[in-house]
Known about the structure:
By secondary structure, the protein is of the alpha/beta class. It contains 13 helices and 15 strands.
Amino acid sequence: xxxxxxxxxxxxxxxxxxxxxxxxxxxxxxxxxxxxxxxxxxxxxxxxxxxxxxxxxxxxxxxxxxxxxxxxxxxxxxxxxxxxxxxxxxxxxxxxxxxxxxxxxxxxxxxxxxxxxxxxxxxxxxxxxxxxxxxxxxxxxxxxxxxxxxxxxxxxxxxxxxxxxxxxxxxxxxxxxxxxxxxxxxxxxxxxxxxxxxxxxxxxxxxxxxxxxxxxxxxxxxxxxxxxxxxxxxxxxxxxxxxxxxxxxxxxxxxxxxxxxxxxxxxxxxxxxxxxxxxxxxxxxxxxxxxxxxxxxxxxxxxxxxxxxxxxxxxxxxxxxxxxxxxxxxxxxxxxxxxxxxxxxxxxxxxxxxxxxxxxxxxxxxxxxxxxxxxxxxxxxxxxxxxxxxxxxxxx
Length: 396
């Protein structure tokens, strides 16, 4: 008999009742150090007082009006995002996959309006992940995402991540855009070689293509810059999607674009009933206030470097369990010898929450507010678990 909640997740048998900062507490009162952050969502941890204040203040006023009317919060948050980015305009929605779909529509409408409807294909990258609706899984082309959901949407040509020459070779007269995650998350925490994003910008310019960055997971400070593409100075996309950290746990997504890219997105071309509602905008505005405070992003970058260095030391001590450390900022991964699910389950039993990824990687995505003590605690748990798993491996 099917469960009341559709069984689409392999859920851990834990129910969390409350959170505080970088910690969650389950229904039995046990405390866990949260290096999952709801899959890179709770950027400011749990129960942050300024986010609570922003949400409750707005909740006392108005929750929802629809986009048939102006929403003051959208105008404030859009202005903040535009002032800190390449963008001239922002569309608000509820999730990352919606933001990505909006970006795809911007691209196709751009070329349709320019008199080139045949230019509707997008070059994407192997091991990429853009969401779970039909267009994103069609773009990702991974069997674990697509099996049983055909026919898939046509219009995507896939190349290896990190290879500009492969992108050049894939361009045809029907190509409209290049889409890439500046750092791949779900695919296994893959950081591209230096100069990759700059090369993609150059290729797009040379061939009259739009450049589409998926910053659903990497955006809003996750790697120590507001957006991950800012690691390569001067490189900007034409279209970018955001979600996850933008709401700090409240569902919100955004598609950012230049005026040139989005000029054809006129009234009636796209919409969302709930997107950018007053509650979501109040929280997003508070998140941006926090992340843009002087010195905050520098602090994320610094603690991320310290976490990365300690993960490298962990590998040296436990080569039978961990074979590679990956990532940047507070978007880190450990490639495992045992299955990553074995490692994640063992970590949870010891009070540390982590997330799986492809390529047998354990993702470590702590809140951006962590400090030295939380890093030490996480490394101590990883150390202990690795020692135990190595003993089990040796005994078998």
